[in-house]
Design brief:
269 residues, eight-stranded mixed β-sheet, globular
């Protein structure tokens, strides 16, 4: 049996590590499809992935069904180019033809009108002022077709207000989420992602984020102000033995006072 190649900080690719540790495109595309079909009773056609990065989600989306198309939008050219080389290239010619990639500010996207817009991995929290977030939500609302839907994720809980590191073991490396700074008077926070390896080497500050911690109520009120007719939250359940999230999301009205929670937000036009 061939020996597995040891990953080190010097040789590792941060985008590959991020995709392995953070993203689950098979699960998330299934969830998005489920949300849309439950509320609309039909299949969507065109999805826009905002803050798409390496757009592995969109690649999985077009693989899921022959009628699915995706528009990937990100302002940073580096992850887009990486995604073209490592993700887009693995698709069939037909699947590639159903993906459009744009290096553009999400606030500037007007066309085409789409069935779904997604903003995952809390990326939209880059908008830290209320006026900025409202502008973004209004822009998304105007980009949707009549039965369109906006789907994003959110997190919170007591741990979201603390400064700590959370390591998690992955295959061949450890993923480390660092909640580096939190400022309670304005709810702004600095977060970083590091990767450590079995040889003792560490890739520090592979990714850095400066966000505002938005509460679910703030998000709901902004979405409603932006013109969305219906806003639902889907709360992740917990494993009884470990207290960790179990990957099962159910519609919730109030949630629970957990140390850490994750929820999907579904806003229907």
């Amino acid at each position: 049996m061939a020996k597995k190649k040891t990953i080190t900080a010097k040789k590792a690719d941060k985008y590959e590590l991020y995709q392995q540790a953070v993203q689950n495109p098979e699960f998330e595309t299934q969830m998005v499809e489920k949300f849309y079909r439950r509320l609309r009773g039909t299949r969507p056609e065109l999805l826009r992935e905002d803050f798409s990065g390496t757009f592995i989600f969109s690649c999985e989306w077009v693989k899921r069904y022959s009628g699915y198309h995706a528009l990937c939008v990100d302002l940073d050219p580096e992850p887009l180019e990486w995604g073209k080389k490592h993700n887009l290239s693995k698709l069939t010619a037909d699947q590639q033809s159903r993906i459009e990639i744009r290096q553009q500010n999400v606030l500037e996207i007007k066309e085409p009108k789409v069935d779904i817009v997604t903003a995952f991995n809390f990326s939209y929290w880059i908008f830290m002022q209320r006026a900025e977030m409202l502008r973004y939500f209004k822009s998304v609302r105007q980009s949707l077709r009549p039965n369109g839907m906006f789907i994003m994720d959110s997190f919170g809980g007591a741990e979201a207000h603390s400064e700590q590191e959370e390591p998690r073991e992955c295959e061949g490396f450890d993923y480390i989420w660092e909640h580096r700074k939190f400022y309670p008077l304005n709810s702004e926070m600095e977060c970083r992602i590091h990767f450590s390896f079995k040889d003792g080497s560490v890739m520090r500050n592979a990714f850095r984020y400066y966000w505002r911690l938005w509460s679910p109520r703030e998000i709901r009120e902004l979405l409603e102000e932006a013109g969305f007719a219906q806003v639902e939250f889907y709360w992740e359940g917990t494993e009884e033995e470990t207290g960790e999230g179990n990957g099962v999301f159910r519609r919730a009205i109030k949630g629970e006072a957990a140390d850490c929670w994750i929820a999907y937000i579904v806003a229907a036009a």
